[in-house]
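User: Second chain of the day. Same drill as before.
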Amino acid sequence: MTEKKRFCLSWTVMVAAAIIVISANTIFIPATSYIAKDLCVDEAAMSSNMVFSRISMIVCMFSFGAFADLFSQRRLMQTGLVVCVVSCVLSAAARNIYVFDLAQVIEAVSRATIMLTMQLWIAGISNKDNLAGRLSWYSILITISPILAPSAGGVIAESASWQYCFIVLAVLSLAMLGGMSVFRIQEQTEQARPKVKFSPMETLREYRRVILHSPLVPLSFSLGWMAWFEGGYMAITSFLFVDELGLNAAELGGIIMFYVVGAFAGRFPVMYIQKRHGARITFLYHQAVVLIATFGALGYRLVTGHHDIWEIAVVMAVFGFGASGMYIYCLRNSMVIEPEKKSVYTSLFNSIYSIAALLGVLTIQGLYMANFSSVSIFQTLMAVATVAMLVGTILHLKALRKMNNDL
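Assistant: Same format as last time:
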């Protein structure tokens, strides 16, 4: 087998596995209110699975830097698929919110393992010049998951039941696990795997150094608030559109596609802008797109006195376009600040992103407990995120100036 053919097969297998596992996080979103009714819980209790899932994902991502180099990427991907099967079986079998929450915690471990492994695999087979492009193409391909999964999940929930969403994913995960077991994935580490040891304390020291003395945090501040908004938005989506705006699960799957298609399209410009115009212009471009979305939503509410289905759909498509490009830009930055420490930077970067999304979900729970409506919560998220991202613009540009724009 030629190296080119082997690379293409490795790419296909790894991306397909990632698509399947990531789908477990989005396939049930249109049916969230249905699941809440079947499990006899309210909106705040139903969103608890997102809280526990995010915490689990953060712990897994935070720990990943300590053991990422101990195993091959192929072995880590297989482990992620096995964990995904377990979580899907538990989700389908859940008869109360506690089992469902546990299943989502397990699913988060699977997703974190797959996501971080894929990022390190791409970094290992790439150089500084083509890293942004390959990360963009990977993210473009896995965006197939949130495009297809919610739509398919809504149809499945309407025609059969929400449990079948997870049954389908369990079967697909088993099929991909079988394929990965017989195919040798191309890895940079195949030629010479360095001897490493499991050292949690050393990893924590590296995290502390990166947080306090590297530009990672100011460079990622705006992205963190985008993640906070996205986490909150996903937590209210079903209740906002199904309970307040009168859609059913299948129709909601179609509305979610507006956001996902925007996110899909947003992955394309970043690879070209970064290469041709540098870090400063890349950041300002994506930040401007996101602020157009948030200011647009706030302005629409100010003029009309309300939010409606199509306005939110368009606003979120624009937001997704800018935020997804910003994620690729910031992820690429985290890998090239200190390339020899990319496993530590990648783990910490994704941990920060997930913590921000978790805080978004916790914000939603608090606002529901304070008797805010889903529409007013959406408005609050937009206003807070806008102010925070404007502050992030200043921090980001100051960090770039201090680094002499050397990204």
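The CA atoms of residues 13 and 340 lie 27 Å apart.

User: Great, on to the next one.
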